[in-house]
Each structure stands twice: as C-alpha cells, then as structure tokens.
Amino acid sequence: MxxxxxxxxxxxxxxxxxxxxxxxxIPTISTGNIIRAALKNGTEMGLKAKAYMEAGQxxxxxxxxxxxxxxxxxxxxxxxxxxxxxxxxIPQAQALVDMGIDIDKVIDIEVPDEKIIARMSGRRVCxxxxxxxxxxxxxxxxxxxxxxxxxxxxQRKDDAPETVLARLEEYHEMTEPLKxxxxxxxxLKVVEGQEDVSDTTSLVFAALED
Length: 210
Ligand code: ADP
Ligand code: ZN
Prior knowledge:
By secondary structure, the protein is an alpha/beta fold. Helix content is 48%, strand content 16%. It has helices at 13-24, 31-41, 44-54, 61-72, 90-98, 113-121, 161-175, 177-184, 197-209, and strands spanning 2-7, 28-30, 81-84, 105-110, 123-126, 132-134, 153-154, 188-192. The strands form two sheets. A five-stranded parallel β-sheet has the order 2-3-1-4-8, with helices on both faces. The longest helix has 15 residues, at 161-175. It is globular, with a radius of gyration of 16 Å. The structure holds adenosine-5'-diphosphate and zinc ion (ZN).
C-alpha cells in the first residue's frame, strides 16, 4: 500500500505513521527527518535546507523532490510506503505522478490551528535518534530522556511559537490545496484528530480499510 499522510505541522502525522508502519510493515518516509539528519551531518543538502527550515518555510521543491526520488528507489519501498510530510505542494504531488507512482490513499488528519499551536509547544524530539515525544500526550518514561536510545529530548527550533505560526500559514497556503488535488482523484480520506492518540489511530485504521 502506498500512502500519504496529510495534515498541518503538528497534526500527529509522524505518530500515526509509526502505528501504520507497525500494522502494515511498510516503511515511513519523513522528509522532515531526512532533512534534519542531513542538517546534522552537515551535508550539502542539509546546508541548502537549513535557513528555510529554521524560519518555518518550506524547503524548495527541487530539493525535497530529489530526496524522495532517491529514497523511493530503495529496496524496502517495494511493497509500499507511508509518506509523512511529502508532498507539501502541488508541484511535489505532480512529481509523484511524473515518477509513475500510483498512490492508493491519502489520509488527511484534521486538527484546528488553536490546538496545533497548543500542542507544538509541548513537542520534544530526541537529539540523537529523532524519535518524537510530547510533554502531555506522549510522555517519555523518564522526563527529558528518549525511551529508545537514552538521548536528550529537546525542542526543535522550528517548534518555537513564532515559527509555528509561519508554518501554519504556509500549510494553509501551499499544502491545503492538496486536499482538492487528491479528492478529485477519489483518494482523500479525512480523519478528525482526537484528543487521545489511540482514538485517532482507530479512525486512521478504519480509513485504511475503507
Ligand atoms: P512536522 O513534523 O511539523 O510535520 P516536518 O518535520 O515534516 O514537520 O518538517 C519540518 C520542516 O522541514 C518543514 O517546516 C520544512 O521546512 C521542511 N520540509 C519537510 N518536508 C518538506 C516538503 N515536502 N517540502 C518542503 N519542505 C519540507
Ligand atoms: Zn533517541
């Protein structure tokens, strides 16, 4: 199954991607995680992306399209994949079409802006392995420490409140039109994000069967 997770930054795409991955045994491809890893490793692509990302802006299409083209060639993508954070613009969606990739379903997780803003302030990521946590909704076993690797949990620069507003604006302008794009193709499934992560997961699983 080839899936796209759509939704505002902080809508919980990454968390739901993990659940789908466990259920369907297909890899999650997160452009955000790939870019953050490149940034950390100081690669050329990371350097190109750095300023955009830290300002809460989208990285240019050609950069992320290049990332996805490379990644989808890997063996583990043969039986399907979950795209988390790609596509985020119409040209990116068109690039998938041009690659000949036939997406089965697009799951759109809807969360109102006010809730996104409240949630993002509590979000923390592992500085070593990039696992994500939330101070209220997805607490680590030990405060400030990653369950998976023991790394220190930090707030992403682009989760700072001013940056969150910029990202939301960009989402509404550039990414939301993708709903119409996939709805026309009959692929869009809308899920209302719930207070409880597992309630959202139930709705996501139902949308997969639908
Ligand atoms: P979130 O977890 O909040 O949904 P991501 O981790 O997916 O955010 O992305 C963080 C940042 O990485 C974005 O704000 C953007 O700068 C960059 N980025 C990730 N994916 C894309 C994409 N498909 N197109 C452009 N920029 C992207
Ligand atoms: Zn970790």
